[in-house]
């Protein structure tokens, strides 16, 4: 069966790393049909729309979308795209790679971030000159859906041993309380082990010893900040992939941005986008191919060639060719 | 003029480190009158109230309050106490001390955390079986008051060179937008330099290089999580003090908790509480005495004696005596 893959390079180095990842996918024995679409600052400057209707529609109908990066318009692009694929979970692995400078090289974490609600639900009001409010929404149904996913991801059949629920229910008693209780209950019903941690305590503890955690399930904004914290521990956003998973489709994107300082020079590191493409393969049940891409990227990170961000002087094309050769 | 000082040891090691800090204050030539009051798990178990009315009243009328720690009831104690003193800013320094193990020993940051609103404003509803909401509140007036404080704290007359505004206004456009714009405007009006950073980007950047930041001004929950992250970078919560400042009074507390594993053994490290007491002295304009306490604690941390958490085998009393001797 042919899978329809939407490709949205976006701005800056998105224009360089996204085609690199597509090249890697094309080098595999997979039945993909690629369609490219525009989003981001550049298309907004031209048309007034950061996310053209046809791009939204493409993501909403394709089996999977590979997205690069967007500049100033990032929130206007990525939040609707996550909605387009109906994504209820954002998977964010944060792992240090051998040979890459990291504050905490022993870090190997996966965040399962709720991807639809919390403060992202977008209900804000300027009530008076003085007062603005935002309605933070937590639903039992979204918490359940996330928890069911987490139970598959980190349950007895997996390589993980349950998960940690991160929350701030000592202050947000109703909302994070509902989140925590619902997730814990689904896990208990599925025979999956969980423990819990306050998000502030997590921030301290993960710096002191990241190996005390493995899979972390958390609300939307907490996942945003805590996964970026973990990115800091493994040496930066440069190598981190992510997957936004919905019931019928997914959206895959590197965690890094547009890197305007090096955009256009052909030296952007394509690793995070290629690893995101490996997550796309996994999602579409091309498990062997996914494993091959992961292994090829790891070898290339270890033995080179390396782009300037990792101290080398190779180009995006050199690294991409090296990954393809190692497949 | 005699200053009335409320002393609330609370639970666990709070009962050990708070009297230690009071001993240090008593060793100075200051005109303080101490009154002790109860709060926390123990008094709740006895009376049903984690924060008895008379304790609240004492904090609401004393010139300054020194608080130790509370256990399970922490939120029920500390949030009303902050309100009792009318605290609009929580000052949280995070600095690594020479000779103390730290992931990032070069860390030297101060968080100025908004202390009254955001998700802490406490308006939550369970709308239906499925839906819970929390109203996050941001006011121009609270943002202004915080900004005015920050301008004094980090402005031209200070040892700092302006401050960084941390926010998530790309998602919380009205609320964090109002916060960011108000704080930036007050700073501009006062000739104080500012820059800004998204809280997720801050989490990555501060791990990669904490020296790129100095004073960080942020909303309530962001300050909670990001200051605890900084605590992780300097080696843990063990040495971190904090000051909750209101228009007419203040509340001073170590950032650490009750440490139930070592409570009652007389070996808790009193440093964070003694440094919090130094912040109390500063607040009451005993600048020389404050400097003497800071110096005595730093010397003691460097040369010992040390409590077990820092690899020594001294008692709380030994460390307290050593600090007093060095005053
Ligand atoms: C661009 C922004 C809206 C987005 C988010 O907050 O989710 C980004 O920080 C991310 O984590 O992908
Ligand atoms: C105990 C809790 C309510 C409190 C907070 O969230 O402010 C604590 O984490 C702190 O930072 O002092």
Protein described:
Chains A, B: Keywords: Oxidoreductase. Chains A, B: Residues 4-323 form the Isopropylmalate dehydrogenase-like domain. Chains A, B: This is 3-isopropylmalate dehydrogenase. Chains A, B: GO terms for molecular function: 3-isopropylmalate dehydrogenase activity; isocitrate dehydrogenase (NAD+) activity. The structure is a homodimer of 327-residue chains. Helices cover 41% and strands 23% of the residues of chain A. Chain A has 327 residues and is α/β, with parallel strands linked by helices. Chain A has 2 domains: 1-90 and 240-326, Isopropylmalate Dehydrogenase (3-Layer(aba) Sandwich), CATH 3.40.718.10; 103-234, Isopropylmalate Dehydrogenase, CATH 3.40.718.10. In chain A, helix 1 (14-26) links the parallel strand 1 and strand 2 (32-36). In chain A, helix 5 packs across helix 6 (175-189), helix 7 runs parallel beside helix 8 and helix 9 runs antiparallel to helix 10 (287-303). Strand 7 (131-139) of chain A pairs antiparallel with strand 7 (131-139) of chain B, so a sheet runs across the interface. One 3-isopropylmalic acid sits between chains A (74-75, 78-79, 224) and B (170-171, 200).
